[in-house]
Amino acid sequence: MSTGALARVVRGAGARRAARAAEHCDMCRAPVAATHRHMLDTARGEMLCVCVPCTLLFEQQAASNGHFRLVPRRRRRLAPLSTESLGVPVGLAFFVPDADGGVEAHFPGPAGPAQAEVDAAAWRRLGEEHPELAALEPGVQALLVNTVRGQQHHWIVPLDDCFRLVALVRQEWRGLSGGGRVWPEVERFFTELTEDD
């Protein structure tokens, strides 16, 4: 085999690997851009990547999508609020309301997020003090809180931001306390959040 032929084989194999590694829409298998929307499959609890046409389709049919919920893009920074009444044992957590009025707390950790049911009455009282929490879209938006090491970050975010934070914590955690890498990375995650209506 000539050098030119070998180079073509190597380039072809690299192109095939890159094509397999590129992200595709989980609904129609079309390629998706690096910045794309997500949809939550509530039946399986999975986040799906969606292309622009599927995003538009699900935005138009929002009321009749069954177990598929398009994740909104809206992010809003909130003034510091106390989640103590919710029984939160840690400073890094996100709270996801469901359509039935319940709320689940998630605590990112090295093995993934731990979960706990939040007292519905305590959540209602917090919502009365902070009316912006009533605007959370059930299942696909969350109240995200970071009070670790004196931080004061309180955000309304799309659920995919919470999934990214969970992945970051799992990737960077070392030892019992997280090690030296996880907390600076968590702080960077929060400083890079931007408000997006």
Automatic annotation (TrEMBL):
A Pfam short name:
DUF5947
Q: Domain of life here?
A: Bacteria
Which InterPro entries did the record assign?
DUF5947 (IPR045991)
Q: What is this protein called?
A: DUF5947 family protein
